[in-house]
Design brief:
The structure holds two protein chains of two kinds. By secondary structure, chain A is α/β, with parallel strands linked by helices. Chain A contains five helices and four strands. In chain B, strand 3, helix 3 and strand 4 form a beta-alpha-beta unit. The chains are: A alpha/beta, B alpha/beta.
């Protein structure tokens, strides 16, 4: 739909299989002015990247350590399909939260809305 | 940090849960709803929606597709959520014409492709009315 490409804000493609972590991290990134596209699985991510014409600036592949081989494979595949996308890998939710906070620091509109530890605390509360 | 469902604060954003397995459709719908000033959480299937539902997050409305992969479809999701929450606004969307069946289970049925203006209008009217009634 055309409306999804209306904004000029940087867009983040967040691949995270755990819905509570994904929801919290996506909300965090939106709060600091980014457009976020949420993918729930590697397959969904591949389908989307290969078919979309939406601009993606950064892809965060949050893949648990146990699935690191598929995470590396996904990252390599995205880089080969869309070389302009900056691909970041995270094996733990702590690492993903840190990446999100770093991306917020880079701008463009707002600074990080709160510290990454607060984001992790929020995810912990959601999971409780 | 955590948007909650509308309570006493008239200025609070309504919080929506969108369950849709097609990423393109989910992202497009969620984007339109965000542009209309709703706070939107996304689920890729009914199980994810239920996980969000059982979290401390509170939702004013669920918008769910019917046919989704997994052990549960959108209709089962609607039934589970309705059984524990009489207040939430339930909206079902599908490519199939299920309008007649949906009258019992949900407040609204929208056939795909969704006219998002109509959906947004429906949500604004009904969530506003809920607030007016203290819901």
């Amino acid at each position: 739909m055309a409306a999804s490409s209306l904004g000029t804000e940087p867009s983040i493609f967040l691949v995270e299989g755990e819905v509570l972590a994904r929801a919290a991290i996506a909300s965090y990134l939106r709060e600091c002015g980014h457009r976020v596209i949420e993918a729930s699985s590697e397959r969904e991510a591949r389908d989307f990247v290969s078919s979309t014409d939406l601009n993606i600036d950064i892809a965060i592949c949050a893949v648990p350590e146990a699935q690191s081989a598929s995470g590396f494979e996904l990252a390599r595949w995205i880089r080969s399909e869309k070389p302009n996308i900056r691909v970041l890998l995270a094996a733990t939710v702590e690492k993903t939260a840190k990446l999100a906070a770093d991306i917020c620091e880079e701008g463009p509109h707002l600074r990080r809305p709160y510290e990454p530890q607060a984001l992790l605390d929020w995810i912990k509360r959601l999971r409780a | 940090m955590v948007p909650q469902r509308n309570g006493d604060d008239d200025t609070a954003q309504s919080v929506l849960l969108v369950a849709e397995d097609d990423l393109m459709q989910r992202h497009a719908l969620a984007t339109m709803l965000r542009l209309a000033s709703f706070h939107v959480y996304e689920a890729a299937n009914a199980e994810e929606a239920l996980r969000l539902w059982h979290s401390p997050l509170k939702f004013d409305a669920l918008i769910t597709d019917v046919e989704m992969p997994g052990e549960m479809d959108g209709l089962q999701l609607v039934d589970i959520i309705r059984s524990s929450d009489q207040q939430i606004l339930l909206v079902v969307v599908s490519g199939l014409d299920l309008a007649r069946q949906m009258r019992v289970r949900s407040q609204a049925f929208f056939r795909k492709p969704i006219e998002t203006d109509q959906l947004i209008d429906f949500l604004q009217r009904n969530l506003g009315r809920k607030k007016d009634n203290g819901g």
